[in-house]
Amino acid sequence: MSKVKFPSSPPVSILTPVFNAARFLTATIDSVCAQTYPHWTLYLILDPLSGDESGLIAHAYARRDPRIRVLTAASPGVSAARNCGLENAEDDYIAFLDSDDVWLPEKLARQVRVLEGAAGGFCSTSFRRIDTGGVRVGRVLSVPPRISYQRLLQQNCILCSSVMLNRRRVGKVRFPEMGCEDFALWLSLLQGGSSCIGLQQDLVRYRIVLGSRGSDKWRSLRETWIIYRQREKLNRLRASATLGIFVVRGLARHWRF
């Protein structure tokens, strides 16, 4: 694959929450180190309740590469970890990567080029799912070229590990302390006037892990309902109709690996 050219080289801060992630963390960090775009800082944010060897792995990488930094969140939970990263990150460009997902080598370069050349406040990409061993690779799950607030309400088509945002354009952001916190934040940004560019290129591998938050669909539906009612203030009728569309679109999108 040919290298992507971009007009400038703004630094990117990458935020990775880490909770009992030792099984996959090495592959995740390696995918960042393999990026063709070299101007990044990776923040590995340890959950204070993490009890495996994740911290040892994180510190070992930080000793070898000065672009890798290790933080510890003040309280448990993925929102607290991401917000800790946002508070410490020094760059305008912020990318998110979960500790069991991996990027393809040109992910950062292609998103920087898009955000430098277009007016969008943030950008997401297409992706494929992989199994726990990283062996089985599913079909491409594409993202719409432009994602509106109404479109996102009806289907969460933005994968957190695919997102890069420009804080100069979206302003100060924080993840709410609730379930599906990334979905809630993207809705807030779009409702506030920011735009999301969908980069229709397969640049991320989303790992399916049994027992993870992403694999519990009933929990996700309950949390989506709470977002509709409490944050987006949809009345019960509209929330029910929107959730119905959400379920149908989700089944159509994920019916096969």
Name the features:
ten-stranded mixed beta sheet; Spore Coat Polysaccharide Biosynthesis Protein SpsA, Chain A; alpha/beta; 257 residues
Q: What string gives the helices and strands in order? A: EHEHEHEEHEEEHEHHEHH
Query: What is the domain total for the residues?
Result: 1
Helix content: 25-40%
Annotated CATH architecture: Alpha-Beta Complex
Which parts are unreliable, with pLDDT below 50 for 5 consecutive residues or more? none
CATH fold call: Spore Coat Polysaccharide Biosynthesis Protein SpsA, Chain A
If you compute it from the alpha carbons, what radius of gyration comes out, rounded to the nearest whole angstrom? Answer: 17 Å
Large-scale geometry: globular
Explain what the structure shows.
The chain is α/β, with parallel strands linked by helices. It has one domain: Spore Coat Polysaccharide Biosynthesis Protein SpsA, Chain A (Alpha-Beta Complex). The protein contains nine helices and ten strands. Strands 1, 2, 3, 4, 5, 6, 7, 8, 9 and 10 form a ten-stranded mixed beta sheet that branches. The mean pLDDT is about 95.
